[in-house]
């Protein structure tokens, strides 16, 4: 079990990034959350099996078709036993 916090920059709000992120996380069995930040970026926490979390990070590098990701910051964190995946 691993946990990664990601902050995504670019055209990532108003393009269904959070909804797409939730669908992908549920498909992969990843727990955590995603939210729009006041600064225009999207922040998310992905927690689960290493391969699934890495797939989520790879998905976030591009996001949905309407998104344009310019930067992705990834920070390792200690797992916190997240329950499900939610949009905050």
TrEMBL record:
Protein name as it appears in the record: acylphosphatase
Enzyme class: hydrolase
Coiled coil: none
Annotated keywords: Hydrolase
EC number: 3.6.1.7
Catalytic reactions on record: an acyl phosphate + H2O = a carboxylate + phosphate + H(+)
Enzyme active site: 18, 36
Tagged with keyword Glycosyltransferase: no
Organism expressing this protein natively: Microlunatus ginsengisoli
Keyword match Membrane: no
Record Gene3D superfamilies: 3.30.70.100
Similarity field: Belongs to the acylphosphatase family.
InterPro entries recorded: Acylphosphatase, Acylphosphatase-like_dom, Acylphosphatase-like_dom_sf, Acylphosphatase_CS
Domain Acylphosphatase-like: 3-88
